[in-house]
Amino acid sequence: MTMKGMKSRLMVILALGSAGLALAGRTQHAASLPGWQESQPNDLGGESRRQFTLAGKFLAPPQGDAANPPSLLLKCAPYQRPGGSGKFRVGAVVVGVPLKIRYVEVLERKVGLSYLPEVAVSYRLDEGKLVNDDWPPRYDKSSVEFEKGDFKKMLRSKTILITLPDKDDHQIRMQFDMPDSAGASLTPAQVAEACGIHDLKK
User: How many CA within 13 A on the CB side of residue 124?
Assistant: First the structure.
């Protein structure tokens, strides 16, 4: 490769690296702002998605220093046509530290025994009863995914308390407060519409 070609290749690599850092910075900044914020998805390629984040706070923080506060992360497919609604794709609680993952034995008809990764989660919505559940970890092993039905219940609440274990079985407690007015952020109703979630009052 000629010296000129090497310089051109280096400039492309530096430009891509700078773009990635800027994108990560925008996502982290959105996750620290109050209320629901729309941020740029950091997964490139594939289906077009809208991404929303709601920053929370640690009540019992992880051992050591967490780089960022916890957040609820939502990825939805955008409207396909005027007047239509978006579609819920991924919902996650982003903790930011490695979580304790256990493998649950499941008997499947075609493949026999398989082992599914799960994280033990406890959550309470407002003054409701404590709910114990198992949510699958995401690929980074520092966040867990929840289903559309779980998120619909969250959107109807004012306060969400979530507890789950880190890799050393230290219990991490978090709180998320749903905004009740637009202000500088999005309302739960606006996020619900963008993700195809209806009948929030039911």
Answer: 10
The token pair that represents 110 in the structure block: 């075609």
Report the 10 Å Cβ neighbour count for 190. 14
92 phi/psi in degrees, rounded to 5: -150, 150
Measured between its terminal Cα atoms, the distance across the chain in Å is 65
> What distance lies between CA 94 and its chain's CA centroid?
5
Domain ranges across the chain: 3-194
Q: How far is CA 11 from the centre of its chain?
A: 33
Residue 36 burial (CB < 10 Å; 0-12/13-18/19+)? Answer: buried
Among residues 72, 84, 88, the alpha carbon closest in space to that of 34 is found at: 72
Instruction: Choose among 195, 194, 157: nearest CA to 177.
Output: 157
Rounded-to-integer distance, Cα 145 and Cα 125, Å: 17
- Examine the pLDDT at 142 and tell me if it is beyond 70: yes
pLDDT one-digit tens code per residue, 63-85: 876 678 999 999 998 876 666 67
What phi and psi values does residue 151 have, to the nearest 5 degrees?
Answer: -70, -35
**How many other CB atoms are there within 10 angstroms of residue 187's CB atom?**
17
- SS3 state at 148: helix
- pTM equals 0.77
